[in-house]
Amino acid sequence: MSNRVINWFRYASPQTFYPLAGQLIPWFWALAALFGALGLTIGFLLAPTDAQQGEGYRIIFLHVPASWMSMFIYLVMAFWAATGLAFNTRLSGMMASALAPTGALFAFLSLWTGALWGKPMWGAWWVWDARLTSELILLFLYIGFIALQAAIDDPRRADKAGAILALVGVVNIPIIYFSVKWWNTLHQGASVSLTKAPSMAAMMLWGMLFCALACWMYSIAVALTRVRTIMLERERHTDWVRALLADKE
């Protein structure tokens, strides 16, 4: 058991994690392409037309996975930030920095696709709905995290400052998720729940789940690609990076 624990902790070192990430990236890109192709094919070609919303409902195959990922990535980013504060590990701050741009992308996509869906359904591109407003705050939290880290030259100080902001912002995640239950909003309740049977056709559900898996695999692939770049930038004065760059030359 102790040997397994030691082996896992080996990957807390950027020098050890860098080649592992390089080996994993192609697999996650392949899975993202596979799940994306399945999800979009089912969602836009095979899933039945919704009885109330017609063909316009198909935006959910982009909107819902993007919304899920915007929240999930923030939680993972906050986890890495907390780990960095608790154990002072370099990799933790790098992972939080690598995740933030992808989380911001999904938060933006959630708002943008929500507007495209809301216009025909509600008659407006934007309303100050509780879920929309809290999702907008999430986007600002991502942007604030990225801007704060960019404003501080010392990476370790930037990681600590960003970690504090990330942990404070975690309170917004349950607000987004439970907003439709806590307040009277225009958003409908969740169609997919761990405790209830899904309220949508099986084909719609499969399409949404495959799209969500595609977004998940994409997020991992991009985060690993970005963290490798961050490692090379931050560790450029170390022997292992110099040796790596010398081998490439």
Automatic annotation (TrEMBL):
Localization per Swiss-Prot or TrEMBL: Cell inner membrane; Membrane
Keyword Signal: no
Molecular functions (GO terms): heme binding; heme transmembrane transporter activity
Keyword Transmembrane helix appears in the UniProt entry: yes
Ranges where the Cytochrome c assembly protein domain occurs: 31-187
Annotated GO CC locations: plasma membrane
GO biological process, alphabetically ordered: cytochrome complex assembly
Keyword annotations of the record: Cell inner membrane, Cell membrane, Cytochrome c-type biogenesis, Membrane, Transmembrane, Transmembrane helix, Transport
Pfam families registered for this protein in UniProt: Cytochrom_C_asm
Bilayer disposition of the protein: Multi-pass membrane protein
Major localisation: membrane
Domain of life: Bacteria
Residue ranges crossing the lipid bilayer per the database entry: 27-47, 59-82, 94-112, 132-152, 164-183, 203-224
Role, per record: Required for the export of heme to the periplasm for the biogenesis of c-type cytochromes.
Protein family per UniProt: Belongs to the CcmC/CycZ/HelC family.
UniProt name for this protein: Heme exporter protein C
Upper lineage: Bacteria, Pseudomonadati, Pseudomonadota, Betaproteobacteria, Candidatus Accumulibacter
